[in-house]
Write a structure and sequence with these properties.
By secondary structure, the protein is an alpha/beta fold. It has two domains: about 160 residues, Rossmann fold (3-Layer(aba) Sandwich), CATH 3.40.50.300; about 70 residues, no CATH class. The protein is built from ten helices and ten strands. The strands form two sheets. Strands 6-7-8-3-9-10 form a six-stranded mixed β-sheet, with helices on both faces. A four-stranded antiparallel β-sheet has the order 2-1-4-5, covered by helices on one side. A hairpin with a 2-residue loop joins β9 and β10. The longest helix has 18 residues. The radius of gyration is 19 Å and the shape is globular. It binds adenosine-5'-diphosphate and magnesium ion (MG). The site of adenosine-5'-diphosphate has 11 residues, from β2 and α1.
Length: about 260
Amino acid sequence: MSAQPLAAGAPLLRVESLRKAFGGVRAVDDVSFELGAGELLALIGPNGAGKSTCFNCINGQLRPDHGRVLLGGTDLVGRAPRAIWRMGVGRTFQIAATWASMTVAENVQVALLSHAGRLNRFWGRASAMCRDEALALLDAVGLAAMADAPCGALAYGDVKRVELAIALANGPRLLLMDEPTAGMAPRERNELVGLVKRLVRERGIGVLFTEHSMDVVFEYADRIIVLARGGLIAEGTPAAIRDDPQVREVYFGSTGVPAAPKDA
Ligand code: ADP
Ligand code: MG
């Protein structure tokens, strides 16, 4: 991995005055926040609040109208998604991106080869190359036993774990996860986000994620930022966000009070 060391005290990611409009819709309206290495930051807000637009302005899919996206001090705005990925910004996808006919291990091996820039030269030998590294990643996500199963045979929750292993194969410094648990049962959601938390702590990766289950957000996020109609309306610890009157009104509605974290 070609990550440059961060200056002491510098955040991994600093988003400054980000704006993106679609016609008259201000999808992201002057949003600023920071994210540290090893931190799990949840971006929450109602549907249409601008969360995905925010993600896409960071990963290069969209060019913001205004603002800066600093990764370790380097501005990502204007760079191609592939270049941003190469700089260590990984992401998992809402739609399963694994290849069903290849084995679990082969999917991860291809990602490792691609990261190392060896994919074209060594394609034919992918089943032998990087196997040990792939197995280590699969072990980390709890899928070692499934290494030689075709991806198409996996349960949905396990496909999400393969996607996480694939994202980690790129050695990311920052991982963007837009609804990583979409379509999963509550228990699987908890397991996946708990796994992400453990792995990113160990590896010092910063994570920005969205998640619909407030139970999961309050249980695992280190910090939460709240978007409503494109604007950032609150930022703080899970406890502070749960008690924030504006968040309750705008995001949870007048009656919906989210559950307390289990170990609070
Ligand atoms: P979220 O992810 O929080 O649900 P989005 O970022 O997807 O919200 O959308 C924010 C707003 O921007 C919405 O009003 C949405 O309709 C609008 N929007 C998002 N993407 C586009 C697009 N490509 N073209 C036009 N409008 C868009
Ligand atoms: Mg979205």
